[in-house]
Amino acid sequence: MGIIFPVSPSRPAARQLQLTFDDGPEPVHSALRPILEEVSSRSVVAGFFVLGEEVSRVRSALADIRASGHVIGNHSWDHMMAGTSTLSDDQIYTEFARTHEEVKRAGYEMQFWRAPRGEAIQRIEGLIVRPAAPRKAIYRFGHCDWHADSKDALSSKTPDQMIESLEKDFGSQPRRESWRLLFHVVPHTAVSLKSVLDHLVTTGNKFVDFSQST
Predict the structure, then answer these.
(1) pTM of the entire structure?
(2) Nearest to 141, CA basis, from 151, 130, 133, 150
(3) 20 to 30 A from 70, CA-CA: which of 40, 42, 112, 166?
(4) For 96-101, what is the mean pLDDT?
């Protein structure tokens, strides 16, 4: 029998990590496809929260996401770039309804949604999940939040910077069994992703399929 080494009490319990990617599906060649290849090599289902405006230009990219077994979610039409607080209720509702229909025209259904920048979640939820007549509900699930942000849409451009941002969130938030990670469909993330995910595995974490219920 081999030697059994005791587990160090200081070693944190392994985290279950879900992968989610916002924006996209553009740029397809420099970001989406290499990200899909890396995630698929891990044999795990990720969530991709897309922008309707970009889907309208590259509908075929949704087939790449679904062919890899991943989930498509709604991230509004144009990321509400004017600022969520500047938009009327009708404009916000249209941002999500229009994206939902665009993805549906491409042949796919969505169940999940995420607010751009995580802004005005309760307001948006009231409009698209529990709307007053004559609006109709688009979704039955509430907002799909994230728990640790790589900050790749802000200051993090390298693997070390993304890892530092994620570890900071791990250390500052309540302990949970499953953590939903936030990345974006951008070229520097496509380049960095393997190194970031390798680090997370070697530090004792495990990737699991995307789920909003965990």
Answers:
(1) 0.92
(2) 130
(3) 166
(4) 98
